[in-house]
Amino acid sequence: MVERPNKPAAIPVSPIAPTPQVSLSDDNARVIATLPSGERLEVLLYGAHVISWRSATGKENLFLSEKAHLDGSKAVRGGIPLVFPLFGPPKAESHAETANLPQHGFARTSKWEYLGKSSSESSSLPGDGGDSSVKLDFGLDQSTIGTENASQWPHQFALTYSITLSKDELETSMVVRNTEQKSWDFQILFHTYLKVDDITKVSVTGLETTPFLDKVHGGEAKPAEKPITFEGETDRVYLQSQEQPLGVLENDQKRFEIVRDMLPDVVVWNPWDKKAGSMADFGPADGWKKMVCVEAGSVQQWQKLEGGDAWEGGQRIRLHE
Question: In this structure, are residues 76 and 48 in contact, taking their beta carbons and an 8 Å threshold?
């Protein structure tokens, strides 16, 4: 072989950046996503229910009752339940259209279809570690909610629920489509259970200028006040709040920040010891000390969706560790 004096240099081969891993459990009941940097997410197809969101360190960020039913037999206690098309118990007198639906509607107790995944492009920054986010999409429509629910709410609709896991963030968003010609109403809420170390050291900021309904005291309307702290059972519905970020602090240090889009109402809830003890699916007995629900939604009024139209809203939860 003749040696070439000016042999071209070999073309360097770029290493293949790691990508998010997404898999179905052996029983096809849940979707599991893991980022190259170690963040992890688990979603049940039953209710499209996020039951776990772990940081790269392995720390769990959502509270899940140890007595929660994960077999599809009833709504799951903890994680992020989806409330649609009704918030709370049926309102027969004020909204006959949803009078026969179960509390909080049927989205959290229906089996959703897993539509697939998509991931962000890998960053070119050194040491980035590969793709920085992964989005999981789930779908639900009139044909998949069961005959009983379909008869109780006889409307044509399609829901697309997207859950995006990225470094230090979890985003949940919903697209609601009216696929028939006549209009119908709905309410929606992300019933997020955040995990904390000690509820007595927790405060929630961002609602200081918003009046609320105090459901512990019969739904009494109360004026805005200082940041929320917890000394007993708390069940408040903050109405038409400004969509500024909400902060969840522990020992005066920010633990979570919640940014909302098209979700003007916020429910803040902790059952405390007596209420928690009355719930058969709540555990451990002192689990109420380790959780706070900060729930972004649109629940004060009914969203009217005209035939053929769509509505979109969501939340982004950012960690501060």
Answer: no
